[in-house]
Write a structure and sequence with these properties.
The complex is a heterodimer of chains A (487) and B (272).
Chain A lengths: L1 H18 L19 E4 L4 E4 L16 E3 L5 E3 L39 E9 L6 H6 L8 E4 L10 E2 L6 E6 L2 E8 L6 E9 L2 E5 L2 E4 L4 E9 L5 E4 L2 E4 L2 E3 L11 E2 L9 E3 L2 E3 L18 E3 L7 H8 L27 E3 L3 E2 L4 E3 L4 E6 L3 E3 L3 E3 L4 E6 L3 E3 L14 E7 L4 E3 L11 E9 L1 E3 L16 E4 L3 H5 L9 E6 L2
Parallel strand pairs in A: 5-13, 14-17, 14-33, 15-18, 16-19, 18-20, 21-24, 22-25, 23-26, 24-27, 25-28, 27-29, 28-30, 29-31, 30-32, 31-33
Antiparallel strand pairs in A: 1-2, 3-4, 5-8, 6-7, 6-9, 9-12, 10-11, 10-13
Chain B lengths: L1 H59 L3 E4 L5 E10 L5 E2 L10 E4 L1 E3 L5 E6 L4 E7 L7 E10 L2 E9 L3 H4 L8 E5 L2 E10 H5 L7 E10 L5 E4 L7 E11 L5 E9 L9 E5 L3 E2 L1
Antiparallel strand pairs in B: 1-2, 2-14, 3-13, 4-12, 5-6, 7-11, 7-13, 8-9, 8-12, 10-11, 14-15
Classes of the chains: A mainly beta (487), B alpha+beta (272).
Chain lengths: 487, 272
C-alpha cells in the first residue's frame, strides 16, 4: 500500500512538471467541465484552470509570479495575496497564457492531473472493547472535539468541531501525507486508538496517513473514560501468574500505595507484571513508593482444605441453625466456626463488633448482598470451597475508601472471588479491608459509568494488620521444630 | 592295623573339631543377635517413652516424669526460650514458604498477648545465613500499635538486589553478625528506619520471611532482652536396661500463617 502511494506521489510530481510546461494549453473552465469539480481562479490574472485549492499554510512570497514549491514538488506561481497555487496555474508568460475563454483544459498524455480527496474524522466513546468494530458501532460521539491537521500535513484547512456522532469533513484536500490533530473536550477521555478507513475499507491504524488522488479517508478515533484498574494498600500482593493493572495518572501513581504505617507491601508475581498501559514500559516505577517487586513463586496450597483441617475438619453441619441459607443474617459470635454444607447468601449489613468472632466454613459458594464490617477488635472470616461473589449493590461511590467487606476471605484454588459489576454510582467501587486469598480473582468493577476511571481504582484492597492479632488461635500456625540429640 | 586305627582317630578328632567350631559359632551368633535385638527393642521403647514425654509436655505445657506401663519412663523439662539477653536463633531452617514471627511482646499463660510488656530497645540486628547457591533475601514486617491502632512498617533486604532488580535494600553488612560468621546483617533502628517511637508505640511483632532461598535466621536484641519466643521441651526416655533416648522440641507461640502477609493472594493471574 505504501509503495502504491509513493508511486502515486511520483506520478503526481512528474505530472505536475508536465502540467506547467509552456506548451500546455489551458482554457477557462467551469465546475461542470473540470473532472474533479474544481474550477479556481488562478493568479492575479483572470484566467481559469482546473486545479486545486490554495494551501493556506504554504504561503510563498507576495511577489507576483514568484515561485514556490508545494508538497508535490512542482513549482507554481503566487498571486497577489501570496497564496500558492498547486498544480493549477501555468507560469505567467507560459504557453497557455492567457487561456481563451470557453476553452477546456487538456492534459498531455503523460500529465495525469490528481483529484482532490476528502478526509473525515470523528471521536467516539467506547468502553472496555476498544476494537475498530466497537468504535465504528459506537453511537456516542464526543461533541466538541476539535479536529485539525499538524503543520507536517499536506494541507491545513481550518479546524472543525465535531457535533454528536457525525464526522467532520475536510473536502477538496490535495494529495499528500496528513497528520490528524485531535483535541477532545476533557482530559478524562483516554485515547484508545484510531482506525483508518479508505473509501470505507479499514486500511490502517493511527492518526496519520497519505491521502491519494480522489481518495476518501476516514479517521475513527476511539476514546474511553479511562479503563478500570486495581489498587492495593499496605499489604503484600502475590499473583502466581500475570500481574497487571494499568495505573493512570493519579496521585500517588502506584499499584500498591502506602498503608497507614507509611509503607507499601512486597508485590510478587510469577509470570510478568505490568502497571503501565504504554507498550514501551511495564511500569516498574508505578509499583509502590518503594517499588519492591519480586519475581518469585510459592507452592500452590489449597487454603480451604488447609484451614478446614485447622478447625478439626468439621463434619456436622450448622445448616439447621439458619432458616434460609439464601438469606443469612449475622449469626451470634462463637468460638467454633459455622460449618455450612452447600451455598449461602448473606442478607443485610453485618457489623462484627468488639469481642465478637465469626468464622464460616462453606463447602459451596458464598454471595454477599450486604456489607461485612468490623468494629473494634471483632473478627470475621469466610473459608469457602466454591466461589465468592459480591453483589453489585455492595460498594461505595467512586472516591470513597470506606470498606464494604472486612475480614479474611479464603477461596479454594479452583474458586473465584468476583467483585461484581458496577451498576450504580452509589455502589460503583469495591473496597475490601483485610486479607483476600483465592485461586482466581474476577475484578469486574468499572467506574466508567461515573466517568471516574481516570481518578480512582475500581477495586481497592486495604491490608488490615489487626487481623494478625485478633485471629483466633485455632486459625494460627503452631510452629514446632523437632530434633533428637545424644542423651 | 595300628596305623589304620590311628588314622580313624585322627579323622574323628578333625570332624569333631569342625563340628564343635560350627556349633560354637552358631551359638555365639545367636547370642549376639539376641543382644542386638534386645538393644534395638530397648532403644525403641526408650524413644517411644521420650515421645510420650513430648506429647505430654505439648499438652500440659509443663515438665513431668512418668513410668509407663511398659516399664520405660520419661523425664521432661520445659524451659523458656527468650526472655533473656542474648541472640535468639530460630531452631531450624526457614523456608521461603514460611514467615517467622519474632514476638516483641510477652504472652500470658493462655497464650494471649500482654501488650503492656513490650520490647522497647531501639537498635537491633537481624542476621541470616548466606546460603549456598541462591542468595536469600529477607522481608521484615514490623507490626506495632499506636494509640490503639495497629500499623505495619516494612523493610526488604537483598544482597543480590541489583541483579534481581527488585529494589530491595542491600543489607547493612556481610560477614560476622549475631555471633556467627558468613551472615548477612541488617542493623535496624526502629526510629530512623521505620518512624517508630519504642517509648510510646507498642512493638507487637516482627514477621520475617525469606525470599528466593531458605535461610537460618537469628536476631540479636543487642542491649535488650527479648520477650519469650518459644518453649524448649527436652524429653529423655529410658528403660531398665539403661538405654536412653532424648528429643528436643521447640514450640513457638502460635502466629498467623505467611499467607496473611498479603492483602491479595492469587494462585493464578491477577489482571485488570
Amino acid at each position: 500500500m505504501k509503495h502504491m502511494r509513493l508511486l502515486g506521489l511520483l506520478i503526481v510530481f512528474f505530472g505536475a512538471l508536465l502540467f506547467i510546461k509552456p506548451d500546455v494549453v489551458f482554457a477557462a473552465c467551469s465546475n461542470d467541465s473540470c473532472p474533479n469539480g474544481n474550477c479556481i481562479q488562478c493568479g492575479f490574472t483572470s484566467y481559469y484552470d482546473c486545479g486545486y485549492p490554495i494551501l493556506a499554510s504554504q504561503q510563498c512570497s507576495t511577489t507576483v509570479n514568484d515561485t514556490c514549491c508545494h508538497i508535490g514538488g512542482s513549482c507554481t506561481i503566487c498571486d497577489t495575496t501570496g497564496a500558492c497555487y498547486i498544480n493549477g496555474c501555468d507560469p505567467i508568460g507560459g504557453g497557455g497564457d492567457p487561456p481563451p475563454p470557453g476553452a477546456t483544459a487538456v492534459p498531455t498524455a503523460t500529465g495525469v492531473p490528481t483529484v482532490p480527496g476528502t478526509i473525515q474524522a470523528r471521536a467516539m466513546l467506547v468502553t472496555s472493547d476498544t476494537s475498530c468494530a466497537a468504535i465504528a458501532a459506537s453511537t456516542t460521539g464526543l461533541t466538541g472535539t476539535v479536529f485539525g491537521f499538524t503543520p507536517a500535513s499536506a494541507s491545513q484547512p481550518t479546524p472543525q468541531t465535531q457535533t454528536g456522532a457525525i464526522p467532520v469533513t475536510f473536502s477538496s484536500l490535495p494529495t499528500g501525507a496528513y497528520v490528524l490533530d485531535v483535541t477532545p473536550t476533557s482530559v478524562d477521555y483516554i485515547y484508545t486508538g484510531t482506525c483508518i478507513y479508505s473509501n470505507g475499507t479499514l486500511v490502517g491504524y493511527g492518526n496519520s496517513d497519505y491521502l491519494s488522488s480522489a481518495e476518501s479517508l476516514t479517521f475513527d478515533v476511539g476514546y474511553t473514560l479511562g479503563t478500570p484498574w486495581l489498587q492495593t494498600m499496605g499489604g503484600d500482593v502475590y499473583a502466581s501468574g500475570v500481574l497487571r493493572s494499568y495505573i493512570p495518572v493519579v496521585t500517588p501513581r502506584s499499584f500498591n500505595i502506602d498503608g497507614t504505617g507509611g509503607y507499601p507491601g512486597i508485590v510478587t508475581y510469577g509470570t510478568s507484571a505490568d502497571f503501565d498501559s504504554s507498550t514501551l514500559s511495564t511500569g516498574g516505577t508505578l509499583v509502590s513508593s518503594k517499588n519492591w517487586l519480586a519475581n518469585n513463586t510459592h507452592t500452590a496450597i489449597d487454603y480451604y482444605d488447609y484451614f478446614y483441617h485447622r478447625f478439626d475438619a468439621p463434619t456436622l453441619t450448622d445448616n439447621a441453625l439458619f432458616v434460609n441459607l439464601a438469606a443469612v443474617s449475622k449469626p451470634a459470635s462463637r468460638s467454633t466456626p459455622y460449618y455450612i454444607d452447600g451455598d449461602m447468601t448473606t442478607t443485610g449489613d453485618w457489623t462484627v463488633t468488639s469481642g465478637e468472632n465469626i468464622v464460616f466454613i462453606v463447602t459451596g459458594n458464598v454471595t454477599f448482598t450486604g456489607n461485612i464490617n468490623i468494629t473494634g477488635d471483632g473478627f470475621v472470616a469466610f473459608i469457602v470451597n466454591g466461589n465468592i461473589s459480591v453483589s453489585s449493590s455492595v460498594g461505595v461511590t467512586s472516591a470513597s475508601t470506606a470498606s464494604v467487606l472486612d475480614g479474611i476471605y479464603i477461596v479454594s484454588p479452583t474458586g473465584t472471588f468476583s467483585t461484581g459489576l458496577s451498576t450504580a454510582a452509589a455502589t460503583a467501587r469495591f473496597v475490601g479491608k483485610g486479607m483476600f486469598i483465592a485461586g482466581n480473582f474476577l475484578l469486574q468493577r468499572d467506574l466508567e459509568l461515573v466517568g471516574a476511571n481516570t481518578a480512582n481504582s475500581a477495586e481497592l484492597f486495604i491490608y488490615d494488620p489487626q487481623l494478625l492479632v485478633t485471629m483466633p488461635d485455632d486459625m494460627k500456625d503452631t510452629s514446632v521444630s523437632w530434633q533428637e540429640v545424644a542423651p | 592295623m595300628k596305623k589304620q586305627d590311628g588314622q580313624i582317630v585322627l579323622i574323628t578328632l578333625l570332624v569333631l573339631t569342625v563340628a564343635i567350631t560350627l556349633v560354637l559359632a552358631f551359638i555365639g551368633r545367636t547370642t549376639i543377635n539376641n543382644a542386638i535385638t534386645s538393644q534395638l527393642e530397648d532403644s525403641a521403647r526408650a524413644f517411644n517413652a521420650a515421645e510420650a514425654g513430648i506429647e505430654s509436655a505439648l499438652k500440659s505445657g509443663a515438665g513431668s516424669s512418668e513410668i509407663l506401663s511398659s516399664g520405660a519412663n520419661f523425664a521432661v523439662t520445659v524451659t523458656n526460650v527468650g526472655g533473656a539477653v542474648g541472640v535468639f536463633d530460630y531452631p531450624s531452617l526457614t523456608t521461603t514458604e514460611t514467615t517467622e514471627t519474632l514476638w516483641l511482646v510477652d504472652h500470658d499463660a493462655d497464650g494471649s498477648l500482654l501488650e503492656s510488656s513490650s520490647f522497647a530497645v531501639n537498635d537491633v540486628n537481624l542476621c541470616w545465613t548466606q546460603g549456598s547457591s541462591t542468595v536469600p533475601a529477607l522481608v521484615v514486617t514490623v507490626v506495632y500499635k499506636r494509640s490503639g491502632v495497629y500499623y505495619v512498617a516494612r523493610g526488604a533486604y537483598d544482597a543480590d538486589a541489583v541483579n534481581r532488580g527488585n529494589n530491595f535494600s542491600l543489607p547493612t553488612s556481610t560477614g560476622t553478625g549475631c555471633g556467627k560468621s558468613n551472615m548477612y546483617v541488617q542493623s535496624i533502628n526502629f526510629s530512623t528506619d521505620f518512624g517508630i517511637n519504642v517509648a510510646t508505640d507498642t512493638l507487637i511483632m516482627l514477621r520475617i520471611r525469606p525470599y528466593y532461598a531458605s535461610t537460618n535466621i537469628s536476631f540479636d536484641p543487642l542491649a535488650g532482652s527479648l520477650p519469650l519466643q518459644a518453649k524448649k521441651i527436652e524429653s529423655t526416655g529410658a528403660v531398665a536396661s539403661g538405654t536412653t533416648r532424648k528429643i528436643i522440641v521447640y514450640q513457638q507461640y502460635k502466629s498467623a500463617s505467611s499467607v496473611f502477609d498479603a492483602v491479595l493472594h492469587s494462585q493464578s493471574a491477577l489482571s485488570k
